[in-house]
Design brief:
Helix content: 25-40%
Number of strands: 8
Largest sheet: 5 strands, antiparallel
Strand content: 35-45%
Oligomer: single chain
Strand order of the largest sheet: 1-2-3-4-5
Distance between the termini: 102 Å
Number of domains: 1
Shape: elongated
Number of helices: 2
Length: 187
């Protein structure tokens, strides 16, 4: 039996083209999902950095960060924020920022007498949160400057990928915050 190649070759070529088109389509879907996931994780890191920076904006006694032991720890930060109240004038507000599992929690003591507090939880996929005082070239602490680093990572359960489901995407946001306004005098 003689094989008729002119009848056999066109279906093989069409089949190879179909396989090629589906593979390219799957690759494009994977890369768009990876891009979306990377952007999402980076957005969470930047958002948490913005939230922490806004909380630190009102730090009233920034000297406590350099003098009181235990206020700057690798995973938490405590400081006093000054609120301007039209009735009572300046009101101190104790603030503690820390990471709890994969969430950022901000504790604000609203009323010291009643021991009431306002807690805000931000679900943000945090893998690590580090606070440290800024240092100069000689490793001396720079007063009123704090650095923090937020690392977020994706959850493999939320991936929409066909393969490599165990790999995680990580993003980093770092900030250095000056805790005293330039117009204030240094003591």
């Amino acid at each position: 039996m003689a094989a008729q190649f002119d009848l056999l070759i066109p279906p093989v070529i069409v089949g190879l083209l179909i396989i090629l088109i589906f593979r390219v389509n799957a690759f494009m879907m994977d890369s768009s999902v990876d891009t979306r996931l990377t952007n999402d994780v980076q957005m969470h890191a930047d958002l948490i950095a913005d939230i922490i920076q806004e909380e630190l904006r009102g730090a009233g006694n920034s000297n406590i960060l350099t003098t009181a032991p235990g206020t700057v720890q690798p995973d938490s930060l405590e400081f006093v924020r000054i609120l301007v109240d039209p009735v009572n004038g300046l009101t101190p507000l104790n603030v503690k920022i820390k990471r709890d599992e994969r969430n950022l929690i901000i504790y604000r003591d609203v009323d010291i007498i009643d021991d009431a507090s306002d807690n805000t939880i931000y679900g943000s996929q945090i893998a690590s949160l580090e606070f440290r005082m800024a240092t100069d070239n000689h490793n001396n602490i720079i007063p009123n400057v704090i650095r923090f680093r937020v690392v977020t990572e994706s959850n493999p359960d939320h991936h929409v990928r066909f393969r490599d489901d165990d790999k995680m995407v990580r993003a980093v946001a770092e900030r250095e915050v000056f805790l005293r306004h330039r117009a204030m005098t240094m003591n």
